[in-house]
Design brief:
The structure holds 2 protein chains of 2 kinds. By secondary structure, chain A is mostly beta strands. Chain A folds into 2 domains: 31-49 and 239-379; 70-236, Jelly Rolls (Sandwich). Helix content of chain A is 10%, strand content 49%. Chain A has helices at residues 2-14, 50-57, 60-64, 88-93, 118-123, and strands spanning 27-28, 31-33, 37-48, 68-69, 75-87, 102-106, 109-112, 126-139, 145-154, 165-176, 180-191, 198-208, 223-236, 243-248, 262-271, 276-289, 295-299, 303-306, 310-311, 320-330, 340-348, 364-374, 377-379. In chain A, the strands form 5 sheets. Chain A has a 5-stranded antiparallel sheet. Residues 5-15 of chain A have low confidence and may be disordered. Chain B is mainly β. Chain B has one domain (2-399, 408-437): Porin, CATH 2.40.160. Chain B contains 4 helices and 24 strands. Chain B has helices at 2-15, 73-78, 122-130, 294-312; strands spanning 36-48, 56-59, 62-65, 83-100, 105-121, 137-138, 143-160, 164-190, 195-205, 211-214, 220-226, 236-250, 253-269, 271-281, 284-287, 315-317, 320-325, 328-338, 341-354, 361-372, 376-385, 388-399, 402-411, 426-437. Chain B has a 14-stranded antiparallel beta barrel. Chain B has a two-stranded antiparallel ribbon with strand order 2-3. A two-stranded antiparallel ribbon of chain B has the order 10-11. Mean pLDDT of chain B is 86; it is low at 1-22. Classes of the chains: A mainly beta, B mainly beta. Chains A and B meet through helix 1, strand 1, strand 2, strand 3 and strand 22 of A and helix 1, strand 2, strand 3, helix 3 and strand 15 of B.
C-alpha cells in the first residue's frame, strides 16, 4: 500500500520539472549584444593644422627652408628692403631755398624679387596665389609730408622689360604722417597672374615743408625713407602628384574577441585649409605571424574598407563641412584585432575657393566622429 | 473507491501541502465558539511576472541565454514584460491567542513580515539585445527593495445576529530593516551626437547595521563602514489595519470579504544617498593625432567615466524619513455547502495585491472543499490570475485539539530541475501552521 502511494505521487512531483531546462548540463555564456546596431559617439579629432599634416608627411622641415610664416600664420615668401634713405640735413642742403616748401626728387630704383627656390615648390604644385607689395615711407619731421611716383611690377628681375609688366601704378601726394616710420603710401594686392620677379620705382618725389631742419627733432639727423615689402603667399595650385600615407599606429583595437563583422565610422570633416583631400585607400593593419614565428604588422587582405569621398577645401574663417563615412567590413569571418590604420591621402588643388593662401593656423577637424557596429558584438562569458 | 480517495489525499500532500484555517479575514473569528492558540504560521508568496524560460532557451545539449545569437530578438524580447519583476513575501506569525469575550471575539498576535523584490524594465534587455536604435529609453522602473518588520496586532470580531459579522485588526508595525533603490527619473537618450543620461534616484538603507562611510567628495563609499551593527532594533514605526466582514444570508451560503494591511511604516533611513543630474557623453574632444593610441584613449575615457560617476554615485545626504505603504491585500470569497451533503462545498474567491514597487497582482478561483468538522478539511481550487492559470490545494487535520494546516498554490509551466525556479510567470504560495484549539 505505502509503495503504491509513493509510486503514484512521484510522477506528480517530477512532472513539474522540465528536463529541457536542466541547468546542470551547463549554460552557454556566449552573448551577442546589440545585434541590430549600436552606435557610439567617439568625439572630435583635431583641429589638425597643416604643420601636423606636413610634418606627418615628412615635408615639414623641407618647407621651412623655403617659406616663412607671417604674423597671421600664412605661409609666405618675403622680400623687404629700403628703396630710398636720405637724412634731413642733406635734403635741406640741396634745396634751393630751405625756407620754402619744395619737391625733392628721388632717384629711380629697381630690385630683383625673384625667389630661387620657388621653382622647386612649383614642382610640388605650390605657387604664389596672392602677391602683396607695400611701399612704406618714413617721415622724421614734426609736420606731414607726401610722396608721389610710379611703381612697376614685372615678371623680369629688373622690372623694366615692357612686355613683362604685370602691373604699373602711379601714386600721387600719398601722405606720410609726422614722426612715423611706417606710413603706407602704396599697397598692391595681386591674385592670380604671373609671379613678380622685379620691380621699379620711377619718377618719385617727396614734398617737404619749409624749414626742414627746424622741424626735425634730431636736428638734421632724421632720415626720410622709402621701404618696400614684397610678400608672396603660397598655396596649392596643382594637385600634389604623390599619395601621402598617414599612419595611425598603436591603435590596438581588440575587436577580434568581439566577433564584429561590420563597423562604420562616420564623421563631419570641417576643413579651412585651402586644399582638397582625397582618401584613396585605407589599410587596416593587423598582426600576422610569419613562418619564422615572428609577428609582423601587415595590411589585412580580408578587410575591405569603403573610403568616403573627397574632403572639400575651405579657407581661413570659412571652413567647408564634408560628411565622411568609412565602412570596415570583414570579407570572410570577423574583423580581427586592429593594430593601426594607414590612410593614403591625395592632396588636391582647391576648387571653387577664392582665398587659396595656405596658413599654419588653418585647421582640419573631424567632428561628430561616431562608430556604428552592425550585426552585434559577441562576448564570451558575460 | 476508498483506495483512490486515499491516493488522492496522499498525492496532494506530496505535492506540497494541505489546507487549514486561515487568518485572512478578521471577521471569520466571530462565529468561533472557543478560543485558540496559534503556535506558529509560516506563509511565503513568490510572484514573478516572467519565468526562467523567458531568459533561458534549450539549444541542443545546452541552455543558452536570450542574448545568444541563436535566439532571435523578437523571440527573446517577446517573452518579456514591460517591467519584469520578482516579488517575494514571507509572513511569519509567531504566536496568536484568541478568546471569546462577552460580545465578540478577541485576538492578539505577534509576527514578522519581510518583503523583497526587484524590477527590471524591458528596455534594458532591448538595448542589450538589439542596440540603441530606439530612443529615448525610460529605465525608471529599475528598482530593488527589501524590508522586514514586526507586527503586534489586536483584533476584534463582532457577530451581528447569526448571519453577519464584522471584524477589525489593528497592527502596530516596528520596522526592522529596509533598503530601497528607486528612481524618480532614469532616462537614456541616444542620438547621433550624444548619449544623455538623466538620473534622479535614491538609495535608502536603514542603519541599524553599520553606517556606510563617505569619500572625500561626500559620495557614499560602500567599502567603508563604521559603528556597530544593531540588527533587530526598530528603525521605523507604523500602523496598519485589517477589515473584514462575513455574511451568511441563508443556510450553507457564506460571503466574506476583507482588506489587509491598510497602512504603512515611517522609516528612518540613516544611510541615504541621492544620485541626481544629467551626464552627456558626446565622445572625446580635441583628440590630437598623437593621442590616437590605445593607452591615451583609455586614459581619456577614464576621465569621462569619472565624470559619469559623479552623476551615478549616490551623494550622501543626512538621514531621512520616508513613509512607505506595506503590501495591501484584498480578498473576497463565496462558499456554498451542498444541500444534499453539507460536507461538500463549492467555493469562489478573488484576490488582489497592490504594492508600490510591483505590478498589481490579482486572481480569481473556483474550487471544491470537503470539510469534516473536528477531523479534516480538504480544498481544491483553480482559476486564472495576472500571470495565467493558477491552482491550489489546501487541507488540515485535527488531532487531540491540535490542528495542522497547510496550503500550496502555484501556476503551471514547470520548474528548472533540482531548483524551484519557475519557468513561467508564476504565483507560488506555501502556507503551513499549527493551532491549538481551546475546547
Amino acid at each position: 500500500m505505502k509503495k503504491g502511494l509513493i509510486l503514484f505521487a512521484l510522477p506528480l512531483l517530477w512532472s513539474c520539472a522540465n528536463l529541457d531546462y536542466d541547468t546542470s548540463r551547463g549554460i552557454d555564456k556566449e552573448v551577442t549584444l546589440f545585434s541590430d546596431e549600436v552606435s557610439l559617439p567617439i568625439g572630435d579629432i583635431g583641429p589638425i593644422t597643416p604643420k601636423n599634416l606636413l610634418d606627418g608627411a615628412g615635408f615639414g622641415d623641407q618647407l621651412k627652408s623655403f617659406v616663412q610664416e607671417d604674423a597671421d600664420g600664412y605661409l609666405v615668401m618675403e622680400r623687404k628692403a629700403s628703396a630710398y634713405s636720405n637724412p634731413c640735413m642733406l635734403v635741406s642742403m640741396n634745396l634751393p631755398d630751405p625756407s620754402k616748401p619744395a619737391s625733392v626728387a628721388i632717384n629711380d630704383y629697381s630690385a630683383n624679387l625673384e625667389f630661387t627656390n620657388l621653382s622647386i615648390l612649383e614642382g610640388l604644385g605650390i605657387a604664389p596665389v596672392r602677391q602683396d607689395f607695400v611701399l612704406t615711407a618714413g617721415n622724421p619731421l614734426t609736420e606731414e609730408i607726401s610722396f608721389s611716383g610710379k611703381l612697376t611690377l614685372s615678371a623680369k628681375p629688373d622690372g623694366s622689360t615692357p612686355g613683362e609688366t604685370i602691373l604699373s601704378k602711379e601714386f600721387a601726394q600719398a601722405k606720410a604722417a609726422a614722426e612715423n616710420k611706417d606710413n603706407e603710401v602704396l599697397r598692391v594686392e595681386l591674385t592670380g597672374g604671373k609671379t613678380a620677379c622685379g620691380f621699379k620705382l620711377e619718377n618719385a618725389t617727396m614734398q617737404v615743408p619749409a624749414s626742414v631742419l627746424e622741424k626735425d627733432p634730431l636736428q638734421g639727423w632724421g632720415f626720410f625713407t622709402l621701404d618696400y615689402c614684397y610678400k608672396a603667399f603660397i598655396g596649392l595650385e596643382k594637385d600634389i602628384p604623390v599619395t601621402v600615407p598617414i599612419s595611425i599606429n598603436d591603435l590596438n583595437l581588440p575587436l577580434g574577441q568581439f566577433q564584429v563583422k561590420e563597423a562604420k565610422i562616420c564623421t563631419e570633416v570641417s576643413n579651412e585649409i585651402p586644399i582638397s583631400i582625397g582618401i584613396d585607400q585605407v589599410a587596416v593593419m593587423i598582426e600576422q605571424a610569419g613562418e619564422d614565428g615572428k609577428s609582423t604588422i601587415v595590411p589585412s587582405e580580408d578587410i575591405s574598407i569603403t573610403p568616403g569621398l573627397v574632403v572639400s577645401a575651405g579657407s581661413s574663417g570659412n571652413p567647408t563641412v564634408t560628411p565622411l563615412e568609412i565602412v570596415i567590413k570583414a570579407n570572410e569571418g570577423i574583423i580581427p584585432d586592429i593594430r593601426g590604420l594607414r590612410i593614403y591621402l591625395r592632396i588636391l588643388a582647391p576648387a571653387g575657393v577664392d582665398d587659396k593662401r595656405l596658413g599654419m593656423k588653418q585647421s582640419v577637424s573631424f567632428n561628430k566622429l561616431r562608430a556604428t557596429v552592425s550585426g552585434g558584438i559577441t562576448v564570451q562569458g558575460l | 473507491m476508498k483506495k483512490s480517495f486515499l491516493l488522492l489525499i496522499a498525492a496532494l500532500f506530496f505535492g506540497g501541502a494541505a489546507w487549514a484555517q486561515d487568518i485572512d479575514n478578521p471577521a471569520d473569528n466571530a462565529f468561533l465558539d472557543n478560543g485558540f492558540v496559534r503556535i506558529g504560521e509560516y506563509r511565503s508568496n513568490s510572484r514573478n511576472n516572467v519565468g526562467a524560460a523567458a531568459f533561458l532557451f534549450p539549444s541542443g545539449e545546452k541552455l543558452v541565454t536570450g542574448l545568444h545569437s541563436s535566439i532571435p530578438a523578437d523571440v527573446f524580447l517577446g517573452g518579456l514584460r514591460g517591467v519584469n519583476s520578482m516579488f517575494g513575501q514571507i509572513n511569519y506569525n509567531l504566536v496568536s491567542y484568541g478568546w471569546k469575550g462577552s460580545y465578540g471575539f478577541h485576538t492578539v498576535e505577534l509576527g514578522a513580515k519581510a518583503n523583497y523584490g526587484v524590477s527590471v524594465p524591458k528596455e534594458i534587455f532591448t538595448i542589450l539585445k538589439k542596440g540603441t536604435a530606439q530612443t529615448p529609453y525610460d529605465l525608471s522602473n529599475l528598482r530593488a527593495f527589501g524590508n522586514a518588520y514586526a507586527e503586534i496586532a489586536y483584533g476584534y470580531s463582532l457577530p451581528i445576529g447569526d448571519k453577519f459579522s464584522l471584524g477589525a485588526r489593528v497592527k502596530l508595525l516596528a520596522g526592522l530593516h529596509s533598503v530601497e533603490i528607486v528612481s524618480r527619473r532614469f532616462e537614456l537618450t541616444t542620438t547621433v551626437d550624444q548619449y544623455k543620461l538623466a538620473l534622479d534616484a535614491d538609495i535608502d538603507l536603514t542603519n541599524r547595521s553599520k553606517k556606510i562611510g563617505t569619500d572625500d567628495y561626500n559620495y557614499l563609499d560602500f567599502t567603508s563602514f563604521s559603528g556597530k551593527g544593531k540588527l533587530g532594533v526598530p528603525t521605523g514605526a507604523g500602523l496598519a489595519v485589517d477589515l473584514g466582514l462575513v455574511w451568511k444570508p441563508f443556510r450553507g451560503f457564506t460571503l466574506s470579504a476583507a482588506v489587509q494591511d491598510l497602512g504603512g511604516i515611517l522609516w528612518y533611513y540613516g544611510n541615504a544617498g541621492t544620485s541626481t543630474g544629467e551626464y552627456v557623453f558626446d565622445g572625446l574632444h580635441g583628440l590630437t593625432m598623437e593621442e590616437l593610441s590605445q593607452d591615451k584613449i583609455v586614459s581619456r575615457i577614464k576621465e569621462l567615466g569619472d565624470e559619469a560617476l559623479k552623476v551615478i554615485k549616490p551623494q550622501a545626504v543626512d538621514g531621512r524619513c520616508k513613509f512607505k505603504a506595506v503590501p495591501l491585500t484584498a480578498n473576497a470569497r463565496a462558499s456554498y455547502a451542498m444541500p444534499f451533503w453539507e460536507n461538500l462545498s463549492i467555493d469562489a474567491s478573488g484576490l488582489y495585491t497592490g504594492y508600490k514597487y510591483c505590478a498589481p497582482y490579482w486572481e480569481a478561483r473556483g474550487g471544491l472543499s470537503l470539510d469534516f468538522p473536528s477531523v479534516a478539511h480538504l480544498g481544491l481550487s483553480a482559476g486564472s490570475g495576472a500571470y495565467g492559470f493558477v491552482y491550489g490545494v489546501n487541507g488540515s487535520v485535527e488531532f487531540l485539539s491540535f490542528r495542522l494546516y497547510a496550503a500550496f498554490e502555484n501556476g503551471i509551466g514547470g520548474v528548472i530541475p533540482y531548483e524551484s525556479t519557475p519557468l513561467k510567470a508564476n504565483n507560488k504560495t506555501i502556507l503551513i501552521g499549527l493551532v491549538y484549539l481551546i475546547r
